[in-house]
Amino acid sequence: MQRMKDAAAVSEKCGVPIAIRGVAKIFGEDGDNPFRALKEVSVDIDAGEFVSVVGPSGCGKSTLMLMVAGLLDRSRGDIEIAGQSVTRPVTDVGIAFQDHLLLDFRTALDNVTLHADIRKLPKKQIEGRARELFAQLRLTHAMDKYPRQLSGGMRQRVSLIRTVVHDPPLLLMDEPFGALDALTRLQVRTDLEALWLRRRPTVLFITHSVEEAVGLSDRILVMSPSPGEVIEDIRVDIPRPRPIVLGDVPEFSAYVDRIHRHFERLGVLHGLDANAQNA
Q: How many Cα atoms within 13 Å fall on the side-chain side of residue 262?
């Protein structure tokens, strides 16, 4: 275990720093019914950090990610990636959403190597790296199968390979495991950590799952209900690689409880009223 931890600690970092300065989003700002989705957010993310954003539905988590990607204009503030202000869609990035978005008419391997076609990358090099990643995630047998022939978990793992195959310095992930069952989520979470440890890209990971955030992250940004703001920035001090059964880690429950207490205080979580229970 210690040897694996040491190996992870010295792995190469290919990530980029992100600086988010007073970023806010108001939809319909020029209309009669503006909607303030995100209050001013200021966060620095170091190169190679894995940062999760957790909060209730509608708090602006995905809005923040889309602004970092340059896919959504911000109303206030500035975002810099590697010292450059984001003024257009970011290209050197891997993006994953809840839907795997695999093409039905391409095999798993062909879906992954699609990056080579779109980005005009050396196809043999990308295919070689794809085969390595399929082997790392124990999916070699699935390379020549079509998405309809794969389970939901396998499709999502193929999507992960496609997201990282071109070694992007930044991964933006919006609820990528949301459609998976609980056991499959555990495995895919472990697979993602293994892929991340290989090169340490910077990751901004959006999730509703507090347990998932604690299991994956170096830091967790806890957000309030809409209009969202960061109410705590928590550093997670659990050695890597992390066990698949996080209940074995004493610190795990403390981090989860800490975040849940924020949501109780904000009224996002409600306990059962004693009077109602006895009625």
A: 21
Residue 82 sits in the same domain as residue 7: yes
What span, in angstroms and rounded, lies between the C-alpha atoms of 36 and 226? 8
* Residue ending a domain, choose from 145, 167, 189: 167
CB 3 within 8 A of CB 237: no
- Please give the order of strands across the beta sheet that includes 230-235: 94-96, 170-174, 202-207, 50-54, 219-223, 230-235
Domain match, 87 and 106 both: no
Q: List, for residues 86-142, the tens digit of each pLDDT value.
A: 999 998 899 988 777 899 999 999 999 987 777 778 888 889 999 999 998 889 999
CA distance 258 to 139: 37
Strands 219-223 and 230-235: antiparallel
Give the residue numbers spanning the domain of 129: 98-167
Global pTM reads 0.88
Query: What distance in Å separates the CA atoms of residue 66 and residue 74, rounded to the nearest whole number?
Result: 9
Q: Examine the domain organization and report whether 89 and 103 are in the same domain.
A: no
Who's near 275: CB < 8 A, 6+ residues apart? none
pLDDT tens per residue across span 222-262: 999 989 999 999 999 999 999 888 887 889 999 999 999 99
Structure tokens at 191: 């697979």
